[in-house]
Amino acid sequence: MSKNTFSIGGVHPHDSKLSRGCAIEQLPLAPAVYLQLSQHIGAPAKPIVAVGDKVKVGQPIAEPGGFVSSFIHSSVSGTVKSIAPRPDLAGNPQMCIEIAVEGDEWAEGIDLSDTLVTDIPEDNKAIIEKIRLAGVVGLGGATFPTHVKLSPPPGSKCEMVIINGCECEPYLTSDFRVLLEKGEQVVVGAAILSQVMGNVPCTIAVEVNKPEAIAHIEEIIGRLGFKGISVMPMKMRYPQGSEKQLIDAVMHRQVGSGALPISVGAVVQNVGTALAVYDAVQKNKPLVDNVLSVTGECFPHQANLQVRVGTPIKYIIDYLGGVPEDAVKVISGGPMMGRAIANLDASTLKGTSAVLFLTAKQTLRAPETACIRCGKCAGACPMGLEPFLLYRYAKVNDLEALEQNAAQDCIECGCCLYSCPAHIPLLDNIRQAKAAVLGAIRARAAAAKAAAEAKK
Amino acid sequence: MVRIIIWTIAVVTVLGLVLALVLYLVAKRFKVEEDPRIDEVEKAMPGANCGGCGFAGCRAFAEAAVKAPNLDSIYCPVGGNDTMAKVAQILGYEVKEKAPMVAVVRCNGTCQARPRINNYDGYASCKVKAALYSGDTGCSYGCLGCGDCVNACQFGALSMDPETGLPVVDQEKCTACGACVKACPKHIIELRPKGPRGMREFVSCVNRDKGPVAKKACANACIGCGICAKTCTKDAIVIEGNVAYIDASKCKLCRECEAVCPTGAIHGVGFPKPLDKDAVKARIKERQLKEKEAKKDE
Amino acid sequence: MIMSKLTISPSPHIHAKDSTRRLMLDVVIALVPAAVCSFVFYGWREVLLMAVSIASCVLLEWAVTKFMLKKPSTIGDFSAVITGMLLAMNLPYTTPLWVVVIGAVVAIGVAKLTFGGIGQNIWNPALVGRVFLLVSFPTYMTTWGAPQGIVDAVSGPTPLGAIQEGLLQGSTVQEIMASNGYSYSQMLFANLGGSAGEVCALALLAGFVYLCIRKVIKPWITLSIFATVALTALVFWEINPERFTDSLFNLLSGGLILGACFMATDYVTSPMSLWGGVIFGVGIGFLTMMIRYFGPYPEGVSFAILIMNSVVPLLNMWFHQKKFGRK
Fold first, then answer.
1. Which stretch of DSSP H or E encloses residue B230?
2. How many CB atoms lie within 10 A of CB C52?
3. What CATH number did the domain enclosing B79 receive?
4. Confidence of residue C251 (pLDDT cuts 50, 70, 90)
5. What is the CATH number of the domain that holds B171?
6. Strands (DSSP E) along A5-132, which ranges?
7. Which region among A91-95, A308-312, A331-335, C189-193 has the lowest average model confidence (pLDDT)?
8. Does A405 contact C18 at a Cβ distance shorter than 8 Å?
9. Is the pLDDT of residue C3 over 60?
10. How far apart are CA A12 and CA A36, in angstroms?
């Protein structure tokens, strides 16, 4: 058992990797896809096609709307039917480009062959530009535009690239299957990232519940001869794959409050992102599909599907047999940080990693009882916060006390609510408090800036 | 024995006098000079410390009132015109009488009219629910029913009706302090004038979806058809974003909009007699016929 | 398509199997070995005592929550059962049953429910009940009857009581120990007189280890109490071995083990952080020894814990756990 892990907090949910044995299948194309313009951190993308245009797979259909933004490419070939608001998985209207599918014609220049391209181009600037043009965003859940992450502010130095293969959320197995079936591409992608950040060492972190993946990747690294890349087996613990916690576990450095990982010399990318980087740089293939797990104890047809971005979730579920009768919750993502789906007609995004079905027994919340001051929440919090205190302050909206107790450092991992014996809805309230504190901090910074400008 | 008693009385008396003197001198030495009118104004305040005036409590209001050049931008909704008159008298200012306001819940999406399409299992707070998703009905603008407004009210004027799932405002207790308005994440509650003898008209819907979508989600929704705006002879109704809004300053309480609304989204409160829709519709028809003929003659 | 409605909630969507009731049940299980030992030594009267204590605590909490507070009753979380067990284990087995009931009323009614129920009380309810009885009914509380149980045991005052009496009469510690035939093994496996909870140190320690393994409690409060008691006793014993008892004697005698393992570690009345807990333990250990050596009572654990309970809010304010990424 590995001892490599983060230093504070954490919980041990059962890993429930039910679909780990399912090889990646291609999902047949849906009749239409709906590409949301805002599916990455930063400004929403701006459409560059019009209704009625014919598009091919991999053709850019929306350009970045700001510095921190990303391209969006058509994931199918067909005709643009509409550019209109459509309810997302939470029921809120989001601008989407609807494309009716006709055939499967790919744009020119994209290499669709299976040949592994191991020669990495030398021009780092060109690599980053290729990544930007391919619309690659972080596929670990945050969907931060990768080309921005790979261009740190001047003065900051990267000392290590960490590839996150932990997949610490229970049930998710998409990263595991990618490591097993597309391991070579991932390793080349890791090598590209390590070169771009200054030929720094690269660590691929994988939890010990994936021994086949660890062995496979180690074999690939030896065979392909990439000396700077190594695999680090990690202890099975949640949230091992959280960016700050992973950096703590691998490099034994803690990213400060409000700071970025680059401040301690780390750049973390998900396994899926490394694969997308390989595709973008070596195959000229933009980000148009990703692997997601469809799973849950009550779901009879577990699968890991390669799905085109924008596929309606209902289509995916119906392809595999429909929503099971005893499922009461359908979640996009994992059970700890995923979002419960209110609208099954919504479509997948670049960052969608799973469709999970949970029964009433597994997910319904028990009634809240009195806090017994056991401190389990504080013991579980990976950021070392005291949720019992933050909860009380959040209820009376004491922003000063919340800021003093670091509510803004909360990573919303859910360990506190998961471990509370009294079933208190801790994170529900702390989330609101965190937003309020961040708002207050921003307002203060803006006011200070304005005051400084006024003085000039 | 008696000596002890005498000594005790003497010592305690002297101690008391000495300490009283010390307290007096300290109070004098460390006295904070304040405008005495602040205390007078504070005495005239209702003392609820609700923050409805925008200041941090009744004393803060008193301080602001004394400092201000006039009372135009200072008003206590809880004390109302009576309190403002007293404050004006103390400070020697003029004050205009303001129309009393009341909180109005602009949603009529009852459990019967607006079916639930999913079950919410999180913490029972409208703020949390609104941040999470569009709600457990087809209307993403309507009341979420968790009672943040009820909890925010310091005067006990709001309560949840278990049958409709909507908050109810007690007109007598409501002081229009605005706490519920701030608490509602969907901005459903509005402070509107109470109206002459408590009569007022308002559109009980804030749904901005197109008509058919809104109607599908809720039988009582405003579908933005515009009939009310066309009927109103005082130009008091504006249709914006597929929803109607009645401007209280222009409304003359004729109740014609309420009669012609196809979904019953417009509500009249405080009227002595129930609305006779047919009679009002007939009256409207007559008037519109007359207008047509008048136009023909021109 | 699904016929029933989907459930929506904020994340996380799963929950650990822990619940308040499970934690309390673990504590009850941990107390069972010591309770069984006391039944063995003191016989049926002790069983009755514990039954009455538990029943009074549970019944009172049910009645008050249902009829006075008009809330759903909270007896399902088993905390009243624990208070009942601990209260019974703090009393001599000859205590009249009506005295026990009064103790239960004070423990649950005054120390727990008036403060707002579980999670809100400042002082450990079982100890408040015990101290109330000690002050109100000193004769009942200091009469240690002869054991009636299976094992032949020595009757008379507890070891601490004997020491205190003997010292007042002018004997030295060694003389008192010799004349009473005290030995450490006796105290460990306990056939000495005392309250039910004092009898078997080994059973209590086994319960403590069980709780640590089940991750119900963290060991640092208890270990800090033991360490402080041992150190303080060592220092004083070195200075004057004829006046002051030694470390091992103090660790094994009286209600120290019961108090350190089960009362000081009560969630509600102990500090939340590591350093807060350590200082809490040091305070309890030190105060216990001061009361034992210099105070009018032979046993000091109950008072020491109650005094340190008052300091807990301050400890919680001063000591917070280390936050990620901050100095």
1. helix B227-231
2. 18
3. 1.10.15.40
4. confident
5. 3.30.70.20
6. 24-26, 32-36, 46-47, 54-55, 60-63, 72-73, 78-87, 93-101
7. C189-193
8. no
9. no
10. 35
Beta bridge partners of B267: B202
Chain A interface includes C169 (CB < 8 A) = no
Q: Domain limits at A404?
A: 376-455
Residues C274 and C220: beta-carbon distance below 8 Å: yes
Higher pLDDT residue, B95 or A295?
A295
**Boundary of a domain, candidates A283, A298, A330:** A283
pLDDT exceeds 80 at position A58:
yes
- Comparing CB atoms, the residue among A254, A412, A422 nearest residue C324 is A254
Task: With CA atoms as reference, report the closest residue to A350 among A278, A285, A288.
Answer: A288
The residue of chain C nearest to residue A432, with distances taken between CA atoms, is C10
Spatial contact of A58 and A74, defined as CB atoms under 8 Å apart: yes
Verify whether the Cβ–Cβ distance B134 to A90 is below 8 Å.
yes
pLDDT, tens digit, for every residue of B54-96?
888 888 888 888 888 888 778 888 888 888 888 888 888 887 8
What is the mean pLDDT of the segment spanning C293-302? 86
Contact A275/A182 with Cβ under 8 angstroms?
yes
Which of B135, B170, B191 delimits the end of a domain?
B191
Q: How far apart are CA A340 and CA A332, in angstroms?
A: 6
Q: Report which secondary-structure segment, H or E, holds A340.
A: strand A339-340
Residue A63's φ and ψ, nearest 5 degrees, are -110, 165
Q: Range of B68's domain?
A: 36-91
As a whole number of angstroms, the distance between CA B202 and CA B266 comes to: 6
In this complex, do A337 and C12 lie within 8 Å of one another by their Cβ atoms? yes
Same domain, B218 and B265: yes
In a mutational test of the A interface, the residue from C1, C3, C5, C8 whose CB has the highest number of chain A CBs within 10 Å is C8
Radius of gyration from C-alpha coordinates of chain C: 21
Smallest Cβ distance to C5: which of B117, B122, B123?
A: B117
What per-residue string of b and e applies to A8-37 under the rule 16 or more CB within 10 Å gives b? bbbbebebbbbbbebebeebebbebbbbbb
Q: Name every chain B residue with its beta carbon within 8 A of the beta carbon of A425.
A: 122-123
CA distance linking residue C8 with residue B98, whole number of Å: 45
CATH code of residue A257: 3.40.50.11540
**Those residues with Cβ within 8 angstroms of residue C236's Cβ, 6 or more apart along the chain or in another chain:** C244, C289, C293
DSSP string, C5-33: PEEE-PSP----S--HHHHHHHHHHHHHH
Domain annotation covers residue B10: no
Residue B117 and residue C9: Cβ atoms within 8 Å? no
pLDDT-derived band at C196, boundaries 50, 70, 90: low
- Give the model's confidence band at C150: pLDDT under 50 very low, under 70 low, under 90 confident, else very high: low
**Could you tell me if A1 and C315 are in contact, meaning their C-beta atoms sit under 8 angstroms apart?**
no
Please give the model's pTM, rounded to 2 decimal places.
0.89
Q: Tokens representing C81? A: 């059962």
Q: How many domains does chain A have?
A: 2
For residue C2, the model assigns a pLDDT of: 41
Residues 6+ apart with CB under 8 A from B30: none
Q: What is the ipTM of this complex?
A: 0.91
The answer to whether C17 contacts chain A (CB < 8 Å) is: no
**A91 vs B128: CB contact, 8 Å cut-off?**
no
What percent of chain A has a predicted confidence (pLDDT) above 70?
Answer: 100
A342 touches chain B (CB under 8 A): yes
Name which of C15, C221, C322 to mutate to probe chain A: the one with the most chain A Cβ atoms within 10 A of its Cβ: C15
Q: Are residues A242 and A380 in the same domain?
A: no
Return the structure tokens found at A403: 């800021």
- Do both A130 and A277 map to the same domain? yes
Work out the pLDDT band at A444, boundaries 50, 70, 90: very high
Pairing of strands A266-270, A303-308: unpaired
